[in-house]
Design brief:
InterPro entries: Phage_VT1-Sakai_H0018. 5% of the residues lie in helices and 40% in strands.
Length: 129
């Protein structure tokens, strides 16, 4: 079981949702229905936060919110994220890089990278709501 805790929570508390697919702790998750979440797809506009633990389809899962929380998640396969880059979702609940203005205009910007990493390593980012 993969447990996940953000680097810095800024006093934010996690929420509980129902998994609508298998989730691994540390994956970025997106709203998939009424009070349900699933691993976020590439460039998702429905990101809710980061899963705190593994959860099977139909199970309850704890989710850390994005806003003002520093997360550390896996970079999308064959990708690189550099400190200061905009962060969007990659495939299967991972992180990818994007131009801040472009991603913000598209509604896919989830944060700003605070470290640099290449796949399959983890990058830190400060989440935006």
């Amino acid at each position: 079981m993969a447990d996940y805790t953000p680097v810095y929570t800024n006093g934010n508390k996690p929420m509980t949702k129902t998994a609508s697919a298998a989730i691994t702790g540390g994956q970025i998750v997106a709203a998939s229905g009424v009070s349900t979440v699933a691993p976020a797809g590439a460039a998702s506009t429905a990101v809710v936060g980061v899963a705190a633990h593994d959860a099977a389809n139909g199970a309850r899962v704890t989710v850390w919110p994005l806003t003002n929380v520093e997360h550390e998640v896996t970079v999308v396969a064959a990708g690189t994220v550099t400190a200061g880059d905009g962060v969007v979702t990659g495939a299967s609940g991972t992180a990818a890089t994007a131009a801040v203005a472009t991603a913000a205009a598209a509604g896919t910007l989830i944060g700003t990278a605070t470290t640099t990493a290449t796949a399959p390593n983890k990058v830190r980012f400060i989440g935006r709501g």
